[in-house]
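Complex 275.
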Amino acid sequence: MKLVYKIYFIFLILFNSKIFSQEIKFYGEAKAGGIIIGKGENIKAAWLNNKPLVIDKYGFFIFGFDRDAKGKYQLMVKLKDKKILKYVYEIKKREYDEQKLLINQKFITPPKKELRRIRNEIKIIKEAKNKIGQLKTALFSKGFVYPVDSIRITGNFGVQRILNGRPANIHNGVDFAGNEGDSVYAITDGIVRLAAEDFYYNGNFILIDHGLGLSSAYLHLSKIFVENNQKVKKGELIGLIGSTGRSTAPHLHLEVRLYNKRIDPMTLLTIQQIE
Ligand SMILES: [Zn+2]
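Predicted structure with zinc ion bound:
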């Protein structure tokens, strides 16, 4: 009887230690424009600065820091065995360069006849963006790939654009140089929320939902190979590089957001594998 009891006791310990693994793996970088992906088997809930994060059924969660984020951020994770883990991130203010560009004046002051079209396009984009965040599963669980074959960056994330001599918008993406017709790939699995043709500023472009509020957009394409609501895989060919919309030469503008937070795509693209 005594022996049986012992065996049972040992079994219980092994069993418990398997289920209640307290390990949380983190991927990414805590900095302005950075993103962190967390994964653990035993997570009940998590909060960033007391705001709840979504934990998907595989134990994935994600949080990020906007381009202009700074200061202290606290991540609190509650495990299923009620243990609480705390992590503090100190985000330093990040400085960004200026980039001077000369573009066609029609993209700075659009002609009157285009205003209705632009307003309509803004509405369509907003409707597509509103769907992002509804998907409560991390489709990015296999990590990320670069959206182009040869990596040559001509526009960094976050720079202050000076268009035709005047301060204009912030550059919220990364520009990859390329030739018209070069392949463009989905950076990770997702669902196409918008495959849009001939928009005034974005040209032909694709918006992909990766779950838990993460999205990526691919602008100025010459060709689009996907349609709305289509599922895509990491590395799948989705379009070709072009120079449609507000663009001065063939290139891919890749933009990443976590809900409304402006994320530096380069911090994601270094996460090539998630285990
Ligand atoms: Zn760009």
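The pocket of zinc ion is lined by residues 155, 171, 173, 175, 253 (CB under 6 Å).
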